[in-house]
Design brief:
It is built from 18 helices and 24 strands. The chain is an alpha/beta fold. The protein has an eight-stranded parallel β-sheet. The protein has a six-stranded mixed β-sheet with strand order 3-2-7-22-23-24, with no helix packed on it. Helix 6 (200-216) crosses helix 7 (229-241). The structure holds zinc ion. InterPro entries: Amidohydro_3, Metal-dep_hydrolase_composite, Metal_Hydrolase, YtcJ-like. GO terms for molecular function: hydrolase activity, acting on carbon-nitrogen (but not peptide) bonds.
Length: 530
């Protein structure tokens, strides 16, 4: 039997019946008591560890409602280059990795810092001597940039600049020859996917390490938006040898051109699950992103784009969601543009009423008209939003997102306040590795509509939410959006997935909120690996 109690502090329970308490007791992975320190001590078993909170706060562990952990994990293959701020130290690490993998084999690395290039251009050829000319592919810590050597570019067939449908770029010199710097996923995946792919055991190790990083920022749960059979196999492999340190709800990825056989195969996978993971449902796309003109909008963008869904035939979308729904899967749909949200709500409304155990969801909802907000209000559909994605907006509207939307429509972005006020179950997430996995900066984006540094522009200040609302979106609401009534809440009988912060987040300045130390993360009452 394991037992731990936290006393003499702040417990933010996310339980409407008792939002605040002083102490909480955990026995055998479940909440055993919540209340005053005296009440909790009285309910604490004799052998239990008792932790004085000393100004600290306990909350339900954070749930990232939109993430891609296996994709992100794959990006962290090879040697960890974190903390190496000189080219010399990076070369040293690469030489060692090259010896480890053997002559000529691909050298991979991640967590590379820009400082390693000392402020000058990122170039692959600077690394070639260290690896004896072996193909080498290194990911920067922010997952926005990678650098590849000439041998790696050659193996991937990359010999010059290319046009991408998004912000991705193969950086080339004046001579048109790639320098090795690769910006954003579509460009770097081109080269990264030319490397030998990891085995199942290697992927399991990468995912375990990734979930330890999740735990370090207080995450104990995530909804995975690009579920594949491979992911299910990897999760199963991890649970064969141990326990997952993050609870995983998988949404299987349906592509618009998937045929009936693919739908049937996915329905067959829906029964798979383990101790801390399960297939929750299916994720579909209705549109793309605003920046590239592929979001589906009520009115065209400044380039005349935005008038189409991702589906050649929208009736096919309506048909496949009916089949998935009838098979008992949760439905969630990527809808960035306002017209996409409207169309998905109409399509969901044609289905039999949803039950609380599997609420239907929409991912992103980046812009919404007033009418869309009203329609959302009565729909029972969950809004899964990423306030953190405002980080790519510019105050002067010079970014491609605002340029395409124009000033008036850009001001209808990320309407978290209006959506909450409409009574919509609203959850937050990161979309990691698209944006950082750490919930704390996301809280600040939601509450301040501005960067945690405090020196950036403020976007639509009337759309601010309170810290309590942001925390709820990352805990209780995240659980309810997965139909999990005994998670995301601190009340007797609930699962003891907890995070301990050094201070009460609701009483911190924005910059302190973004960096408040995470003292412990517990899953089922036990310390998550660190
Ligand atoms: Zn995503």
């Amino acid at each position: 039997m394991s037992a731990i109690s936290f006393v003499s502090g702040i417990v933010r329970t996310m339980d409407a019946d008792r939002p605040l308490a002083e102490a909480v007791a955990v026995v055998d992975g479940r909440i055993a008591a919540v209340g005053t320190t005296a009440e909790v001590l009285a309910a604490t078993p004799e052998h239990a560890e008792v932790v004085e909170l000393d100004g600290g706060a306990v909350l339900p562990g954070f749930i990232d409602s939109h993430s891609h952990p296996l994709w992100g994990a794959r990006l962290s293959a090879g040697v960890d280059l974190g903390g190496l701020t000189t080219l010399e130290s990076v070369r040293h690490a690469l030489a060692a990795e090259s010896r480890r993998v053997g002559p000529g084999a691909w050298v991979r690395g991640w967590n590379l810092e820009y400082a390693a290039f000392g402020g000058s251009a990122v170039r692959g050829d600077l690394l070639e001597d260290a690896v004896g000319g072996a193909p080498t592919f290194l990911m920067f810590y922010d997952l926005h940039t990678a650098v590849a050597t000439r041998a790696a570019l050659e193996a991937a067939g990359v010999s010059g600049a290319r046009e991408f449908g998004d912000a991705s770029e193969i950086v080339v010199g004046d001579d048109g020859v790639p320098t090795g710097e690769l910006r954003e996923p579509t460009a770097y995946d081109l080269v990264g996917s030319a490397a030998p792919q990891p085995t199942m055991a290697e992927e399991a190790d990468l995912l375990v390490a990734t979930f330890a990083r999740f735990n370090a920022v207080g995450l104990t749960g995530c909804a995975v938006m690009d579920g594949s059979e491979r992911l299910l196999d990897v999760l199963e492999a991890i649970e064969r040898d141990g326990e997952l340190s993050v609870r995983v709800d998988v949404f299987l990825w349906h592509r618009p051109d998937d045929d009936d056989a693919a739908v049937a195969a996915r329905i067959d996978l829906a029964s798979r699950g383990g101790r801390r993971w399960r297939v929750a449902g299916v994720k579909l796309f209705s549109d793309g992103v605003i920046d590239t003109g592929t979001a589906w909008l009520h009115a065209p963008d400044a380039s005349g784009d935005g008038l189409a869904s991702f589906w050649p035939d929208w009736d096919r979308y309506r048909e496949v969601i009916r089949r998935y729904d009838a098979a008992g899967l949760h439905l969630t749909t990527h809808a960035v543009g306002d017209r996409a949200v409207d169309a998905v709500l109409d399509a969901y409304a044609e289905l039999p009423p949803a039950d609380d155990a599997r609420p239907r969801r929409i991912e992103h909802l980046e812009i919404l008209s007033d009418a869309d907000v009203r329609k959302l209000a009565g729909s029972g559909v969950v809004a899964s939003m990423q306030p953190l994605h405002m980080q790519w907006r510019h105050g002067d509207l010079s970014d491609s997102w605002a340029t395409r939307l124009g000033e008036a429509r850009a001001a209808t972005g990320f309407r978290a306040r209006d959506v909450l006020d409409a009574g919509v179950l609203t959850v937050f997430g990161s979309d990691w590795p698209v944006a950082g996995m750490d919930p704390r900066p996301n809280f600040v984006w939601a509450t301040e509509r501005s960067a945690p540094s405090g020196d950036g522009p403020v976007f639509e200040p009337h759309e601010r939410v309170s810290v309590e609302e942001a925390l709820t979106a990352y805990t209780r609401s995240g659980a309810l959006a997965l139909g999990a009534t005994d998670r995301g809440v601190i009340r007797v009988g609930a699962v003891a997935d907890l995070v301990v912060l050094a201070a009460d987040p609701a009483r911190l300045s924005p910059s302190d909120l973004a960096t408040v130390p995470i003292l412990r993360t517990l899953i089922a009452g036990l310390p998550a690996p660190s």
